[in-house]
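Workshop exercise sheet. Pairs work together: one partner reads the sequence aloud, the other fills in the structure field after running the prediction. Swap roles for the next sheet.
Pair: D.N. / O.F.
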Amino acid sequence: MLGTRDRTHSESREFGRALRKEVPRSSHAGWIPPPDRADPVDLLDSQNADRLPWLVPVRFGRMSPSAFTFYRGGAKIMANDLASTPDTGLNVQVCGDAHLLNFGAFGSPERALMFDLNDFDETLPGPWEWDVKRFAASLMIACRDNGFDDEESRAATRRGVQAYREAMGTFMDMRAIDVWYSRLTAGDIRRLMPKKNRKRVDKRITKARSKDSLQAFSKLAEPDGDSYRIKSDPPLLHPHRDLASVAGHFGEPLDLDELETLMRQAFGNYTATLRDDRRLLVHRYQIVDWAIKVVGVGSAGTRCFIVLLMGRQEGDPLFLQVKEATASVLEDRLPASEYATHGRRVVEGQRLTQAASDMFLGWSRGKTSHYYWRQLRDMKGSAAVEKFTPRAMTAYSTLCGWTLARAHARSGDPVAIASYMGSGSVFDRAVTEFAALYADQNEEDYRQLVAAIESGRVEAAIED
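Structure field:
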């Protein structure tokens, strides 16, 4: 269940403590793959049936450089694995893919730079432990990828889990509305990172602040008579005027006029999901062009678009991103979403989880697909974790652990969760041990993907 109205504060505290007998905190340390564990490459390939065929090799290419890039695209594999691990039965609105690079900076509607979770393609009500374990394993894998030794990797991972536990311990005694108002700003990021890293942090913050529709416009658009159009950059950026060149990959003839009509209908359906004031704002702009744009690692191959809109005066562009929302990878193991479309599932999960969400966030339904809409590059920034020292990784893990706890405290029962974990390090050490074991599993799975690419079982397109 989500919410806490059925128990008082003291009842939730006792309930959480009692759960330690049913699900010992030390039980989270184990990971032994079940005998009938699905082939990881088969699981990945099963997701490709509804993806754009010519982009599937891009997905495998983006997963192939390292065990960490593989992990980023392997949410379905881990979702299947987590279903066999212990959980307390305490549900929250989980991110579903809470790995290290799905935390980052973005602009709030008030134009403050926030730090939060920023990817909700897999969000669904589910066990809070699943997010914590995906987060912890991502830390361990990223540390190994950076060449840290075992002690350094475990220390950074343990600190991330500890930060989650300690933050939940704080949230359990806060008023519900104060939990809702809690957030991390750019200033908090700078303050919590090591002093020697602050210049680099300042550069990342400055770069994030520069990312908006004007910046996207300068990179992605070009003059077209009295108007503008999106530049062509195949195979990663296909304006709709060029889609005839890949028509064969759709399996049926393409009618570009029909596609244009469908996009404008989708735009109308999307604006109907916005608040009245934001709908009025969007209607001050007109669509002038749109394109298929490949994004992400796990998302590569899904139907993702960018839409260029222009206001009435020169120099007033608005770029929106439209991402296909498919079934959450968690739905193989958890009850299906209560929402009629996956676009709405993503949007409602994001609004419930984030401290502040994109003012243009909405959803639409296509002929056979579901989508969610948001601004493109709205002050969005991510950490260069591949350049982190052990000390910087440990500091960053603290930011992410606090953020994940805040997200869970909004939708779940922070009193019961915090009381279950307690004030000691039993839970921290158990999840760190799980993360180390699962990092070993991820390395083996990654080797299987590399072997599949080398044998020709799957095709990978390696980008420059």
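Discussion prompt: The chain is about 45% helix and 15% strand. What would you look at next?
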